[in-house]
Amino acid sequence: MATSTMKLKLHVWRQESPSARGGFVTYEADANEHMSFLEMLDVLNESLESRGEEPIVFDHDCREGICGTCGMVINGRPHGPWERTTVCQLHMREYGDGDQIWIEPWRAKGFPVVKDLFVDRSAFDRILQSGGFISANSGGAPDANAIPVKHEAAEESMDAAACIGCGACVAACPNASAMLFTGAKIAHLNRLPQGQPERYDRALDMILQMEEEAFGSCTNHGACAEACPKGIELDVIAMLNRDYLAAVVKAG
Amino acid sequence: MELRSKIPSGPIESRWEKHRFDMNLVNPANKRKYTIIVVGTGLAGGAAAATLGELGYNVLCFTYHDSARRAHSIAAQGGINAAKNYQGDGDSIFRLFYDTVKGGDFRSRESNVYRLAEVSNEIIDQCVASGVPFARDYGGLLDNRSFGGAQVSRTFYARGQTGQQLLLGAYQSLMRQVHAGTVKLFTEHEMLDVILVDSVARGIVTRNLRTGEIQPWLGDAVALGTGGYSNVYYLSTNAMKCNATAAWRAYKRGAGFANPCFTQIHPTCIPVAGEYQSKLTLMSESLRNDGRIWVPVEPAETRPAGEIPEDERDYYLERMYPAFGNLVPRDLASRRAKDMCDQGKGVGETKLGVYLDFRDAINRLGKETIEARYGNLFEMYERITGENPYQVPMRIFPAPHYTMGGLWVDYNLMTNVPGLYAIGEANFSDHGANRLGASALMQGLADGYFVLPYTIGDWIGGERPTPVPEDHPDVTRTVDEVQTRVDRLLALDGKRTVDDIHRELGRIMWNECGMSRDAAGLEKAIERIPELREEFWENAAVVGSGDTINQVLERAGRVADFLELGELMCRDALAREESCGGHFRLEHQTPEGEAKRDDEDFQHVTVWEYKGDSTAPVEHREPLEFEYVPPTQRSYK
Ligand SMILES: Cc1cc2nc3c(=O)[nH]c(=O)nc-3n(C[C@H](O)[C@H](O)[C@H](O)COP(=O)(O)OP(=O)(O)OC[C@H]3O[C@@H](n4cnc5c(N)ncnc54)[C@H](O)[C@@H]3O)c2cc1C
Ligand code: SF4
Ligand code: FES
To answer: Which residues have CB under 8 Å from B11's CB, separation 6+?
Structure first.
């Protein structure tokens, strides 16, 4: 079976700096069906470099869909057309000869563009700093089997813990809300017995921090969960809301 | 260079405890007066920085990633070992210790390995307490599985995302300390040098990857948790940014580099598809628990896997190693796959692959069980290859994965440079010539949570360092040297891309210093690499400027270091005239093609000392003693 090749027209967002005005630049690119989407961009970048032009800046690292570093909007969809797939796992067999592809950075006030497709997601770190942890100093923890955790609780916690912090949920949301990301961490920890002591403070603190960042509010649109490469579901937002309300009531 | 391993005396079971008692302490109220620099936020660096912060030190922590959560540890899939014996299958600290020493082919330090096995249990306790959602059985207790090279079930896991969950645990602890103000975290800062003041490590120089600012940071001790160097091969399972720069800069400032040729080639990765390939994807070796590895008996085979009848398949690992079968250690599994492909029996378009087949497991256990165990791995495989492994066997091939070699450290994890520590994959200490599956995560967390935070106190408490002025000539000189190097890189306006040069280096390393090595090939590489290095410094194309994000510049600096490290790896491989673990010298094998170790002449750690760019490095040796696990020829037959 011969490998099929294709010629593409890419319209890529280029922006020199956070304050510079960006715009689309059009490139011709060659690819074959076995390449990943990022490898297609690598090849284009290498040809730009050898012509002495600055390559397109995009961030990435593991290329296995787990580190959460990659992210771009492709033809209007965060991470591109494949369901539950980060852009580093998207492969070119999706595309055909002559296709046009628009490539943009995450667009959200909470994620300012740094350069080209590279955005600043440090707001996510600050949300986690405000309460996305269990206070357990190292040393002196009880035996790991001392507190049994129900199989379902462990599984449901793991479902939420699978979030990779990529930010696609924010990019997909018409309000650029960070509820899915924040809810995922709250659900990961609050679904476990170990997470109970700080449960309500955690919800309160994380939501306060989320509101301090430039994220919008949630209007139950659901676009976040659709875009999420890790299948984080809307029930984490329900849990976030419940625990937040309970916390507010408690705080009186 | 003086190599004092500082191994405590007495029976091995009580060495760590005794040592902890003997160490200097730092008064809790005084800890905040001391600044500790931690580079790296992987399992090793993240856990260390968080714990040091909890203890009250003033911690400065650096990573080149945009967030501490992105460290390469996040990608580990399979699991983490511990000697809990929850399954009651006869496991113990001693057995984990024994397996690790044997698995490392008797090239690691017994005392360090024993300590690792000892603290492994505390790691699991700590992780559970901090919310790591490990897999549980229906009674709510922790589940385990068995992993390559072990005959007991001691591996804890969180689906196929164990590294992610462990790293998030450490990251969350780190975030808590950032919030508490004990740790100051600097993301997108790449360390480009160590600052030595009067021969003692007192700081680092970083480049801010966003603004290009080059800046010194001073403190009372420096710990590098900067990961491994598999990307010297260009294609590896490591994340794209993994590199050797931090360790290499330390080496060039006098830290010994130990066993650089000890690299691990992982047997179960997705084969290379083409020239544009940017990295290789690991398929967790937990797959070998249920998958069976085979190739067609006939080299000329053209039928698809499903049409090849049972008696025309060679389940070669089961045939050659009946006791361990598909679960033989990684080095054996990799080398045998290469043998099969060398004999022309490889599968897939490139003929560089073997089958990993789940047909029998699916028939025996049902598709649902297999899906529950490996669902996300199967999905990942399908996304990349477009093939469905429930229906057709996976194709796998070995790929560079882990580096056992690294900075030489003593029992305290201090390099031979006073005040400079190396933890996690960046050091050489625990895995000898071959690492067992699920043991790197264990080591990273052991070093970070339970060893370094204490041993660093011994240094601070004994030395009581006093602050170094920012304008100390050793500081300004180091900053100037870094600046000069960055300027030199930026001035390169040749014809060849940095990646293209890296690709060529990778090919040399893979061919001559990969799964099997011989003197002729290594000598050739030792000649070729300096030429390639010269070409890099004359003809590389580094576009863009230094005052903004410049990913070409970042890669160029890393590749420049790989071009030096690669040569040292080849020198080390040439000097080690034996086969052991992942280091297989074609000249040293038994008639059956098994590795022939030479304990008489090579039962030592080789430590290289930098002597200048145009002078050959000097070889030193730390002899190894085996009091508890008498060396035997490994046999997995
Ligand atoms: C695909 C894959 C799967 C694996 N699966 C398993 C498994 O199942 N079980 C197991 O035990 N092991 C596994 N391993 C091995 C294990 O993941 C690694 O050995 C381990 O995570 C390394 O941790 P670390 O903390 O030493 O380094 P890393 O996690 O690599 O972290 C390095 C850190 O240092 C920083 N850094 C590096 N250089 C600099 C610099 N110059 N300046 C600033 N910051 C710097 C990076 O930003 C990063 O934060 C796997 C490895 C791979 C590649
Ligand atoms: S919730 Fe999903 S989309 Fe949002 S950051 Fe996490 S993984 Fe990404
Ligand atoms: S590069 Fe890591 S998730 Fe895409």
So the answer is: none
